[in-house]
Design brief:
Strand content of chain A: 25-35%
Number of helices of chain A: 9
Strand order of the largest sheet of chain A: 12-13-14-15-16-17-11-18-19
Largest interface: A-B, 38 and 34 residues
Oligomer: homotrimer
Order of helices and strands of chain A: HHEHEEEEEEEHEEEHHEEHEEEEEHHE
Shape of chain A: globular
Chain lengths: 407, 407, 407
């Protein structure tokens, strides 16, 4: 249970907040690269700020302020050119540093005056890796974009899911530190829902947690579980799963990035990596992008069980939303199952304090040699809750496609 | 015309308000029993409170707080078991009294500690009668659930309609005390709308009110009307119609319950009872549930006349909404047609004062012998505005079905 | 760049604001006459006030308060009669001056009492011209409804478009004083969008503005442009285009009226006049009414280019909305292209001051002889950006019909 003040401190992400300052020390995914292939601009909201993401005519990414300095048309309507983004309203052009580099009529009518020279839009670093586009909104010099293992895996077939869930980022992140919910939400509740929908083939074998443990590790927190009939030799216990600080989940075949849109909305990016099938090949521009559901109650106040009797992610998202836009931690009752969450809150608090003292928090990488591939060991795919939760492969076939991938 | 203060006093329904305290002395319908047959949980909002209604594995109803005490997942996603409702997130189980009776991982990891013992969710009494589920949110001991005649009528064919109307409860209740609107809204306006839609067969004979009267009666207020060409011997005058205190309308074949959801939304439950046709039988689980419209203006600011040229209820609901979320009684002009409304406001005020003094208001029943069947005499069905408004039988065939009733 | 205070002064339109008082000196369109043929009442919101527009049984227009004085039902549900509008709830009747002229049950029950005599709803002048219905909400005596040339043109084929755009009126009005945006928004951006959609036949020849100029004129401001390869003899320069004060645009074949709904919504009426084709005839009741799009970003934060690769109006509306509900003029950077906007803001300020001093602002006409046809010369249709933007004729064929025009 937290005080209201502590709950505010951990959840609010504006530029002047403790959590906002911490989260601005990291790169966050903001788009799939294929979205810019569909249209080369996109309005992005992240950490409470609206920004214009674009790819210029030379293929370079830019991330600048949402509004033209002239008469505040949104630059997402802009025209990408070889070396920048041109405002659609009067043709002012900006480069990737937010500088205004052209004002056609101004330069025609008053070639002597340099109205453009003092204009500077917000501009942030943006990089592409593995089909995702990442942004860094913090102070310079920017750290390296971390090359987590799945993002750089070769010879893999990848797919990307996306949703914006109507809740604060922290409740989605705390769920990562919560082994026991797998037993219930993804086990008993799933089976209950499958019973309601009649799709009993979706039911899974019952599991029971005997003990759980959490370790601080170089990249975050490793959570461990031991189930009934397992020993300390099981992968779940020996290897465990990652919370990659500050808010990413690592499974054997998936990274789940959780990014604050604003105080009460969280963008979730599901990055899955599957073994390539025989003769299969995938270019970055062929990565499917699908719409992960964030289910809500139906119009009669009843659960939409047909969205809840299978994959774990819609189940998680329904629960996150059910905790209300900002989960009221002054009214919680934490127990043994929440030791990972308590550890995570302390870690967040500690890292916030480091940032407040002008120091660098964890997972800020500056040595390229150490960033070739950041390995996050998990159990092998075959053992990932085998026979319990089943394979999540090819989610993109099960959900609504966001982009039509060229055939 | 009321002062702003009086309007607030009569309309606001929070737990600390005068009207809220009065309304908490009564049982109110919150669901149709068939809704729990579709899915055994439902999030209910009543009198500004969000609650979880469920039916446990033994068929017993429960009504407890919306959120799990652990990490505040909504219990509407819960799994009903033989003796309670289990939270889907980590399996904490609650009984109908709101007690936490099981915490699986807590009991495994710390069998010595009894984290659950001090947990108590809000819990309210809930009962089923005639296919409706009623709740009581007031102080203990709870009174009896009133057995109004239509609710306990045997050998009848019943149907239930439901809508949530975007307005305060009081404007829907005041309409019950308003005989004259039948002449206009359900007569002249209906005929005007039928002229616009071209369904002239829906037009009704013109009626004119000559006099109206209102009497305080044991269960509420009886309203009487005398139309042109009628005498004091007519049923409309001699018998009249009921406002069943605090907010229910009784017609010859229908009870209309009006229940505050919050200050600006009102749930309306339409409980109709028809004579059984030859060879007809109806079990509770076969009671149709339909969606009564609450029409609003179309996108051009014009009335949706095709929803307004027939049944009286959509007409009433359109007017309630048109009075704005909370009807501004500081700007009204009451006249002779509103004498029933004035009497009702005085009755409300008086009953609120009784509650404020710690006394019991009217219609609180505690003697089972006197609650076998509470008879609310009205004219016979045949005479109910005969030839004027026509039979409303089988509304469920005319509106969108909420539940698919098993064939 | 303005101060926050000046931006408020120019944009806010409530009854006690400077801009609100100025705009209340003018007639504004509020409906197409055909809308009242579909249904004879319409709820209108203009300058922040909700009003009931209706046509009575004798064909006369009325514009009175939104609510019945009795129990505040919305009069848009009313029944028009020969000499007024009758409330649907209890039959109270109002005339066009807002007087209550009948209260059926009150007059039956208390013929001695004259409850109705002191009731007076707000009532405003309303007139029809050329298929549009105009309202005047200011002080009496009302000026004449201006007979702008296109509104009274004979032997013409007319069409009316309508949209409500989610932004303050001033950003839509300022766009009229902005010649240079035609080069970019309606040229380069259009061509970019047509490239994206593949409808390359929609692309237009590139234009470049060499100089622009603005003149105060009897009816408002004339804007002039000279393009590359043009001389001072071109119509664009010699004749120019009109901002008809306070907020109407005049093109060779169109009047665009921009009317505040409230502080953050603007109704736009597109009144087009085309030469009649051989054998063509058009009665007022045959004027098509169509829904002009006000495009917004799609659910992925990307521009809906398929709505933006053709006609100028959807392009303008997308930009107006993109400037946010109220464009923040404390953060703008005005230049040479904005000299017309600066002149317009000064003109607005000056006219507001006149009104504050109790004087009449410009374009208030009181002499019928001078109001037969107010001529707003523009270049001939043939020359209107010929070969550049192309004819906009028959917009109603390209957009969603609001009214089914009788065949």
């Amino acid at each position: 249970m937290l005080t209201q003040q502590d709950n505010e401190r951990l959840t609010r992400i504006g530029p002047d907040t403790a959590a906002g300052k911490l989260l601005r020390c990291y790169w966050h995914p903001i788009a799939a690269a294929t979205e810019l292939a569909r249209h080369p601009t996109k309005l992005v909201k992240i950490l409470g700020e609206e920004l214009t993401l674009y790819r210029d005519g030379h293929g370079r990414l830019g991330l600048i302020g949402a509004y033209c300095a002239h008469r505040r048309a949104k630059l997402v309507y802009g025209i990408p050119e070889g070396d920048g983004l041109r405002c659609p309203y009067h043709g002012w052009k900006y480069d990737g540093a937010g500088r205004c580099v052209e004002q056609p009529f101004e330069q025609t009518a008053r070639p002597d005056r340099n109205l453009k020279d003092n204009i500077r839009l917000p501009a942030y670093k943006v990089e592409e890796l593995g089909g995702l586009i990442f942004a860094y909104l913090g102070a310079e010099p920017a750290p390296l974009l971390p090359r987590w293992d799945l993002l750089v895996e070769r010879n893999a077939w990848r797919e990307i899911g996306h949703t914006v869930t109507g809740c604060n980022w922290l409740q989605s992140a705390e769920n990562i530190l919560d082994p026991v919910h797998v037993e219930w939400l993804h086990g008993e509740f799933r089976n209950f829902a499958a019973g309601r929908t009649g799709r009993t083939e979706r039911k899974r074998k019952r599991i029971r947690h005997v003990k759980i443990a959490f370790d601080l590790a170089p990249y975050g927190i490793i959570k461990r579980r031991m189930l009934e009939h397992e020993t300390e030799e099981s992968d779940d216990w020996k290897i465990g799963h990652w919370l990659v600080f500050p808010s990413t989940q690592k499974g054997p075949d998936m990274l789940r990035f959780r990014v604050p849109v604003d105080d009460t909305h969280t963008a979730q990016w599901y990055y899955s990596v599957h073994p390539l099938a025989e003769g299969e090949l995938q270019k970055d521009e062929e990565i499917p992008l699908y719409d992960m559901p964030s289910p809500v109650l139906d119009e009669h106040g009843q659960p939409p069980v047909d969205q809840l009797d299978g994959d774990v992610d819609p189940q998680d998202n329904a629960i996150f939303v059910s905790q209300e836009p900002i989960y009221d931690r002054t009214k919680e009752t934490l127990g043994e199952s929440d030791r990972g969450i308590v550890m995570y809150r302390h870690l967040l608090d500690h890292q916030m304090k480091l940032v407040e003292e002008g120091k660098e928090p964890m997972n800020v990488f500056r040595d390229p040699a150490a960033n070739v591939c950041l390995s996050l060991p998990t159990e092998s795919r075959e053992h990932f809750l085998t026979g319990r939760l089943g394979a999540r492969a090819r989610q993109s076939r099960r959900y609504r496609s966001i982009l039509r991938v060229p055939a």
